[in-house]
Design goal:
This protein has helices at 2-16, 133-136, and strands at residues 39-46, 49-58, 63-66, 82-86, 100-109, 123-128. The longest helix is centred in the first third of the chain and has 15 residues, at 2-16. By secondary structure, it is an alpha+beta fold. It has a single domain, classed as Thrombin, subunit H. 14% of the residues lie in helices and 31% in strands. The chain is built from 2 helices and 6 strands. One of its GO terms (molecular function) is serine-type endopeptidase activity. Residues 25-138 form the Peptidase S1 domain.
Length: 138
């Protein structure tokens, strides 16, 4: 019983007393706002909860590339729960003046991608509505 209490005390101290890590990228700095307009946030919202966020890159007004692993598990069947946000600087801020929201029309994972693996972890995604490049300054 004493060992269990010591373990619980350790977990409490670790989670609530220890200093929280710095939220910056290690040895990095924040990018200039909108310096990379081709970057997008691929977001999986299930039951009004953001459960997964992946990055992506715009390759045309209707296509983007992202990781195939973004669609692992039940997410591969629930593409209507994904939103694509382009033109944003901060993932947590909403309604930036340059923000564009699109949805997944369909996606094509690399034919040799094995889920839960790293090889060939890429997917082509078609979005609707198309991105407007005049707003994104690409």
């Amino acid at each position: 019983m004493k060992v269990f209490l010591i373990f619980i005390l350790f977990v409490f101290i670790h989670n609530y007393v220890c200093e929280k890590p710095d939220e910056k990228i290690f040895d990095g700095s924040e990018a200039t706002p909108h310096a990379f307009p081709w970057m997008v946030s691929v977001r999986f919202n299930f039951l009004n909860t953001l459960t997964r966020t992946c990055g992506g890159v715009i390759i045309s007004d209707i296509f983007l590339l992202t990781a195939a692993s973004c669609f692992e598990g039940s997410a591969m069947y629930l593409t209507n729960y994904f939103t694509i946000k382009a033109g944003i600087h901060m993932l947590t801020n909403g309604n930036e003046s340059t923000e564009q929201i699109s949805f997944i029309s369909h996606y094509i994972p690399h034919p040799n991608y094995m889920y839960n693996g790293l090889l060939n972890d890429i997917a082509l995604v078609r979005v609707l509505p198309p991105f407007k490049f005049d707003t994104l300054s690409v």
